[in-house]
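Field guide to reading this record: the first block holds the primary sequence, the second block holds the structure written as discrete tokens, and the final block holds curator observations. Each block starts with its own label. This record concerns DoxX family protein, catalogued under organism Kribbella capetownensis.

BLOCK 1 — SEQUENCE
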Amino acid sequence: MSTIPKNNSETVAHTPGRASSIGVWILQVVLAAIIAGGGISKLAGDPVMVDMFADIGAGQWLRYLVGALEVAGGVGLLIPALAGMAGLGLVALLAGATITNQFVLEQSPWHPLAFLVVAAVIARARWSRTEAVVGTLLRR
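BLOCK 2 — STRUCTURE
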């Protein structure tokens, strides 16, 4: 004799895939807000950001580039088909931020490193969509 749930809400509520998908979406929204907010402050010319990039010594063009990449990455995290690729791009960007904080600015690398880990989790969780998008682009 098999046991059949009396209604579908019992099976949906206990599905681990759904809970993890919701968790990843929460990570995506939070990371998107943090990263895009930082990008907007770089693009807007926040004096703290201008001074930080002056300390880096690569020129203000790098502030604009990083700001644009951060805004693009934040927006990409919110688009289901692009979330995995945005996560991968942010992993690369945040690796650079971690190294820059540690060795150039001589600041703690923990914030960008923590964001890097979250971006990597998102990239891994959305890997199947990333493969699908890349496959579609390669077939063209």
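BLOCK 3 — OBSERVATIONS
Residues 20-138 form one domain.
Residues 16-43 form the longest helix (28 residues).
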